Structure prediction request, 594 residues.
Amino acid sequence: MSSEKPIYLIAPTESGQRLAERLAALLPDARLWSAPLAELPTAWHSARQLVFLVAAGAVVRLIAPLLTHKATDPGVVVIDEAARFAISLSGGHQGGADALAEQISALLGATAVITNGSSHRALPAIDLLGKPYGWRPGRDSDWNRVAAALVAGKPVQLVQHHGLTLWQQALAQDHPFTETTTAAARVWIGAGIPDPSDLPTVRWHPRVLWLGVGCERGTSEQLLVDSIQQLLIEHQLAIEAVAGIATLDLKADEVGILALARHYDWPIKIFDAATLAACPVPHPSSIVAGCVGTPSVAEAAALTASGAGELTVEKRVFRAEGSGACTVAIATAQTEYNPEPGFLSLIGSGPGALDQLTPAAAAALAGVQVVIGYSLYIDLVRPLLKATQVIETSPITQEVARAERAIELARRGLSVAVVSSGDCGIYGMAGLVLERLAQSGWDGQSPRLEVLPGITALQAAAARVGAPLMHDFCAISLSDLMTPWEAIRKRLEAAAGADFVIALYNPRSQTRTRQIEEARAILLAHRPPETPVALVRAAFRADEQISLCTLADWPLAQVDMLTTVLIGNRATFRHGERLITPRGYPGADTDLPI
Ligand code: SAH
Prediction:
């Protein structure tokens, strides 16, 4: 997701161009490619993905000479000019064409055409499995044979020693993974190197190993590389599973360590002597303590960086004539290091029916790895979700837990959607998530975050009964779970007195019945008894119910937690089954309450 290369939209025809312009406005990172088709190779080599708006046959001819390897080719998506289909033509997995076709379909209301073997079986694409978690693919992996076994539905042995097991939650009941060795292939996930097996095997290495490194001034990069490789091989650990290097702050400018980190793209965690001295280690050294102020650098740094209680490999000293000397220890973290910044998409799913959800929200839902929300709302958007996405539902009361879980997963580098009904920023999850992030010192960047609006209940309810919100209005939630009733009562008084049209959210539950009665009494003290009231229940859902009444004959018992109550201002009037609040304030000169 963090790739900097653009997506090019290529539309040789005029009608295709109009669609391309529409798409460019909807799709972040997408740009129109307007050069002649003869220059296609330039687009091919500089793009993450290419989207063609022309017949698929023509695209096949155009790209045929350019195709080299699925690991390096851009993904190719074709859209017909009527925007009915978004076809993932090539580079479905590693080129990201499958995901892009899904995203475009969600934006345009088209159907995604995905022909990869794993997508219809709710199986993860094996060559992408660990990517979202920052795992590194193991050398000597037999991707093709393992993928073939999975697609054929043959049993595949699964061994997972490290890393998030979240992906297993998304597997269908009849998934082919098994623990036994009597299988057609093997998927092996861990920090080590597995024993040889006759089964075709793919390896993924979650980055859990922290290398604690100390060295003499001027130790060569080569000695560091050789020492680390030797230690890893001796202990059957994969270099791909290394998360990073940990060392003492005195070594922050050590040329060999910096070069090593750059070479392998490893982060460096730096600790001061006091922090390292506080960490109990198997081999403290008073000589080291005398030199740098901590009895251990390598062991203490590995333990501190990983958060582990014990070392995986105790310290070893390596020395080479003329190259200096270094000490290396290894510890294994519980959770893998993931260089991705993580992403939170806070989504409002609208009142109910899917056609009331914005295309942007639909595209975001299709694009994330994890979707979190209250079960009822998740059920409403389920048709938009993909079988390989992880869905975490929870009961209605667990908002704080949901917010924390979303943040935890995003901090681990995942892209997570948090779904609220209506608008997520109106009595929804957006505030909760942002509050928690702010409390935990969020820098605004990592995880990245977007808030996508939705049609809130008051808009949905208003639309169902006409135009009651035409003049100044306000929303008041009658839930006193998190707000003292006295504060709610004062707001009701003020809004009633100021003649706002009022939308009541959370008006009445099975146990919370008194508030709505008090609210009505307050309104009656300020407005005529014939003031129109609309009770809109489950707007835009299958069980929608609407009733119109007045303040005087308002059937309170009919109101529940699925209802939004709209109360007109002094000018609101009823016409048949509609409520209309005039655009201006007729008669304002005579009898204004404010
Ligand atoms: N974030 C939501 C509001 C959540 S508070 C939004 O923006 O709409 C929950 C309250 O919203 C419910 O008690 C009810 O008063 C109202 N509500 C939510 N969906 C509704 C719907 N489809 N029809 C009527 N009221 C609804």
About this structure: Residues 351-352, 420-423, 426-428, 456-457, 460-461, 505-507, 536-541, 561-564 surround S-adenosyl-L-homocysteine (CB under 6 Å). The longest helix spans residues 221-234.
